[in-house]
Amino acid sequence: MTYSIVAFDPATGQLGVAVQSHFFNVGSVVPAALPGVGAVATQSFPNLQIKPRALALLQQGRHPDDVVRELVADDPEADYRQFAVIDAQGRSAAHTGPRCMAEAGQLVGDGFSVQANIMRSTAVWPAMAAAFESSRGDALARRLLATLDAAEEAGGDLRGRQSAAILVVPAEGSEVDRVVDLRVEDAADPLAELRRLLTLNDAYTYGNEADAALTVGDRTGAAEGFVRAMETAPDVVELRFWAGLSLMDAGNDDRGVALLREAVAAEPVWLELLHRLDPEDSPSAARAIALLGG
Q1: Contact criterion met (CB below 8 Å) for 66 and 95
Q2: Domain check: are 78 and 175 in the same one?
Q3: How many domains, in total, are found in the chain?
Q4: By the 8 A CB rule, do 108 and 68 touch?
Q5: Rounded CA separation 101/43 (Å)
Q6: Could you tell me if 174 and 217 lie in one domain?
Q7: 7 and 137 within one domain
Q8: pLDDT (tens digit, 9 = 90+) per residue, 233-291?
Q9: Which residues pair with 166 in a beta bridge?
């Protein structure tokens, strides 16, 4: 009861997997990816060993077609399985066993593969492919989410919705490096929740970039990063607080104090945090406390 996509972004080298299913905690089952190597989705009576085995074979330089053939040949239950593999060159391959429950199918395209089983109609996976191909230019995670949206609009899972996940890894890095790693374990509308989390992921990514700017003494860059983070997720009071303080550190007291006032008015705990900050790390903290009257 699952639809998924594995994909490669040639502009960034990122690899990703996205999935939605009427299944609890689908993100712990279907996706796997390794920077610079490939990505895998396994579903329909999933064999979890497919994920490490496929990635290991890709790491040896095997073509995805060969990987799929070998995994199918070694699996006595392959007729019930559905899985897809993509490598860091954008080459993909997939398998849909003849005993996967209808409606089931796959579509392998340039830099992606979409696959689905127990769908309401055979329109689901073509709609997914069209959505991914038409979203060129967007960030990979957003393209993956658009693909899931298209599946849902085309009818989606026969049994409904329950969980969803997006995993995106960078072009280079270790097995623990992630660009996006989000899961919705159980929800009435998993894709709506996944979209909310992806927006927060974007905001905190900008915040992390701002922290990185601070470590090299770039207070202007830090202020720009925290402001971008706040504007991405305006309801997160913490981001408003750090944006305000970083603006003051960069010399923009008027806007900085205004944002700090808003943060403290919403959650007074942030005034207490101002008192606890190390003056060497936050040179404007004392001035901010005085201007806030705290």
Answers
A1: no
A2: yes
A3: 2
A4: no
A5: 12
A6: no
A7: yes
A8: 999 999 999 999 999 999 999 999 999 999 999 999 999 999 999 888 888 999 999 99
A9: 18, 182
Would 84 be classed as within a structural domain?
Answer: yes
Task: Please check whether residues 180 and 221 belong to one and the same domain.
Answer: no
Helix, strand, coil percent values for the chain (each to nearest 5): 45, 20, 35
Range of the domain at 258: 203-292
pTM value is 0.94
Tell which of 128, 152, 184 closes a domain.
184
Whole-angstrom distance, CA of residue 260 vs CA of residue 241: 5
Q: Is residue 191 part of a domain?
A: no
Q: d(Cα 263, Cα 51) in Å, to the nearest integer?
A: 45
Tell me: the pLDDT tens digits for 123-180? 999 999 999 999 998 999 999 999 999 999 999 999 999 999 999 999 999 999 999 9
Amino acid found at 154: A
Chain centroid to CA 206: how far? Answer: 15
